[in-house]
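ingest -> validate -> predict -> emit
validate: passed (alphabet ok, no gaps, 110 aa)
predict: started
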Amino acid sequence: IADTEGKCVLYATDTGKLTEDTYAFLSGKHLNCVIMDCTLRAKTVTDTYHMGLRDNKLIQERLSSMGITDDSTRFLCTHVSHGTGGYRYLAACAEALGMELAWDGMTVEI
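emit:
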C-alpha cells in the first residue's frame, strides 16, 4: 500500500489471491487505485503467485462489498504475459469487468 497526500493505492502483483489477513488489514481503508497482476489473463487456472481477470474481478467485488473501494476507484491490470490474445482483446475483456489494462509507460493520475 502506498498512502500519500490523501490517496491510497494497493499494488498487488505476484501475490496470488489476496489472503483473509490482507482483507482484514485493508478493512477501514479507502483505496483510490488497485493494481493487480493479470498474468493468467482470462484463464481459470489457480496459481499460487499470479492472478487473472476472474481472480481480479472477485477481488474487486470483495473490496467493494467491504466498502474499501467505490465507483471512483480505478482497477488496473498489469504484469501481462505473452500469449494473451493481444492487447486489444485483453483490454476489452478487462473493460467489460470494470477494469483497465495497463501498458508499458502508462502514467496514472489519481
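The radius of gyration is 13 Å.
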